[in-house]
Amino acid sequence: MQPLDYRDHLLDVLKNSPDVQRVQVPEGTPYPYPLAVTVAGRDQLWQIMGQSADGAQKGKPTAPVHGDPAAWTTAPVTAAPDAWLGGVVGATEATDTRKIDVWTARGKQNPGLTVFFHNGEKAFVRLA
Predict the structure, then answer these.
(1) pLDDT at 55
(2) What is the pLDDT of residue 57?
(3) Digit-coded pLDDT (tens) for 31-48
(4) Alpha-carbon distance 6 to 2, whole Å?
(5) What's the pLDDT score for residue 56?
(6) pLDDT for the residue 92
(7) Distance (Å, rounded) from C-alpha 39 to C-alpha 94?
(8) What is the CA 78 to chain-centroid distance, rounded?
């Protein structure tokens, strides 16, 4: 899924999350495809980037492929921001999502997610 499309998807998902007080696409940030979220009274700015599937033509999205939804773990809003977001993303049980990798669960200091899609594309969602 292309970064702009994934940002729009996250915008819709987060609008429906009971833990989110505000979500919007901010203007004037230095980050491509930003998403501003207020959750549990904390402001978060996420940046969405993407990687095309192997062999894909530059600038052309790969057709979606559907399969089993990704395994996921629910995390409270008090957990690491990427763990919480990974749970929100996983709870959608999207059939185009193959795997959700929460960076802090692997010991990384910078919070973020890698979302792997069944069609070979990836979305990188990092806390800016």
Answers:
(1) 83
(2) 78
(3) 999 999 999 999 999 999
(4) 6
(5) 83
(6) 95
(7) 22
(8) 18
- Token readout for 49 is 């980037």
- One-letter amino acid identity for 49? M
- Terminal alpha carbon distance of the chain: 20
Residue indicated by tokens 């207020």? 38
Q: Hey, what long-range contacts does 33-42 have (CB within 8 A, 24 or more apart)? A: 33/3, 33/4, 33/6, 33/7, 34/7, 34/128, 35/7, 35/10, 35/11, 39/77, 39/81, 39/84, 40/77, 40/78, 42/81
Identify any residues that bridge with 43 across adjacent strands, giving them in sequence order.
38
What is the torsional sign of CA 121, 98, 81, 27?
Answer: positive
Would the pLDDT of 61 be above 80? no
Type of residue numbered 47: Q
Query: Distance (Å, rounded) from C-alpha 75 to C-alpha 61?
Result: 31
Residue 59 has pLDDT above 80, yes or no: no
Amino acid at 61: P
Surface-to-core class of residue 95, CB atoms within 10 Å of its CB (0-12 exposed, 13-18 middle, 19+ buried): middle
